[in-house]
Backbone:
């Protein structure tokens, strides 16, 4: 990267000497595509406690975000995150587990990747991708042609492969409702899987941005 002053100087000199070349040299690094305001993604995640299939429902107009975690040959755990900072993590089977967390931040903005550092192109899972580094959090891979995310990798070891990405798909309202046992006076003792789920990587990203500004 050029320091800004040098860059302006170069552009100026080029503009004087070779106006057409100067125009081309002004093109900068690619920027990540903002997230569609609503989408459904099916992903495969590898993190502590093994592999899981994760259904992501991102719903920015309604300011809510849901992930449904199906552990390999194991439990299905739900996470619903709201803009007011409340998150519900629960099961829908007879175990009736629920953990409620409060974060000081809302959900990810569609342009949350703005300001990431472009690190070039790489093949990932067989797709040619543009790759960015969101400093301190993750590396993000986006298909160079379709601009659809292919993979991301948080620096604490979480990796996620995007298997399907359906723009404008919205989960019906009733599915967002946390079950009644989340609203009991005394929360049930949460077990280790739920504790693990309540590590909210995307909340951490929002939190980091709030801290920066
Ligand atoms: C998941 O991650 C662990 C730890 O890095 C690794 O040993 C394992 O091979 C990974 N599994 C898959 C299917 O990639
Ligand atoms: C945040 O919003 C959710 C969904 O409407 C609600 O269930 C929860 O109680 C709210 N939390 C707070 C602290 O108001």
Residues:
């Amino acid at each position: 990267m050029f320091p800004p002053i040098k860059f302006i100087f170069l552009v100026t000199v080029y503009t004087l000497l070779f106006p057409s070349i100067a125009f081309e040299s002004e093109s900068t690094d690619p920027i990540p595509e903002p997230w569609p305001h609503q989408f459904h993604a099916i992903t495969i995640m590898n993190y502590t406690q093994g592999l899981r299939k994760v259904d992501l429902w991102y719903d920015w107009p309604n300011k809510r975000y849901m992930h449904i975690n199906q552990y390999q040959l194991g439990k299905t755990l739900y996470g619903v995150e709201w803009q007011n900072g409340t998150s519900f993590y629960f099961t829908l089977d007879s175990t009736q587990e629920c953990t409620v967390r409060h974060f000081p931040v809302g959900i990810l903005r569609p342009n949350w990747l703005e300001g990431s550092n472009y690190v070039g192109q790489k093949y990932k899972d067989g797709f040619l991708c543009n790759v960015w580094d969101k400093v301190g959090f993750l590396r993000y891979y986006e298909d160079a042609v379709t601009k659809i995310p292919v993979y991301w990798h948080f620096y604490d070891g979480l990796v996620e492969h995007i298997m399907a990405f359906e723009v404008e798909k919205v989960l019906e309202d009733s599915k967002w409702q946390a079950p009644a046992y989340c609203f009991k006076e005394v929360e049930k003792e949460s077990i280790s899987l739920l504790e693990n789920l309540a590590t909210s990587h995307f909340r951490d990203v929002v939190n980091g941005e709030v801290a920066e500004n």
